[in-house]
Amino acid sequence: MTARITGLRSMQRSLKSFGAVFEAYDGIKGKSTTKVKLKVNQGRIQKILSISEKFPDAAIKAFRQSMKIIANDLHATLDDAMEANVWNWHDDMRDIIDTGNLRDSGRVTVDGDDIVIKYDEEYAAIVHYGGYIKSGYDPNVSIFYPGRPWVTSVLTGDGPVEQFDFQGELERNFFHFLGSTVLKELL
Known about the structure:
Layout: E1 2-6, H1 11-16, E2 18-26, E3 30-38, H2 42-54, H3 56-83, E4 87-88, E5 93-94, H4 101-104, E6 106-111, E7 114-119, H5 124-129, E8 131-134, E9 142-145, H6 150-156, H7 166-186
Antiparallel strand pairs: 1-2, 1-7, 2-3, 4-5, 6-7, 8-9
Helix pairs in contact: 2-3, 3-6, 3-7
């Protein structure tokens, strides 16, 4: 299962519209794609953009440094979401972790100006989206797995865990790194 935070090809485009595209391969259904828009405060974004125009090199450097920090923080938030005892499991609430393999297969990386979320474990899509799988004991029996969409919940807030604060993280980190870079240039 792969999620890519898109619209980040240039700093200006990314700051004006955060978005997410989720891609998951399900052996039964094939590939599915869902888009999610993340809300941002346009006034704050315009302030960042106006500063970026005055110090373009410093702004690009600060943005890239910010993206690395955001990716690390997002990864920790996704792990926390998986470990939270808030997920419906056949009339009970529990975490998503059984062996830890799914959690440990997760990667959140920066690819250019994109943030990519990827879970390599083969059953990532069924855990996230839910569905039916064939029993390993009787091929005539299908077992229902309820969806536990930890990635969607973290990105959109539409679930039992809090939404990741992309805008807050970007603002805190961007202004921190921009300030450091601009001060070095001015001194």
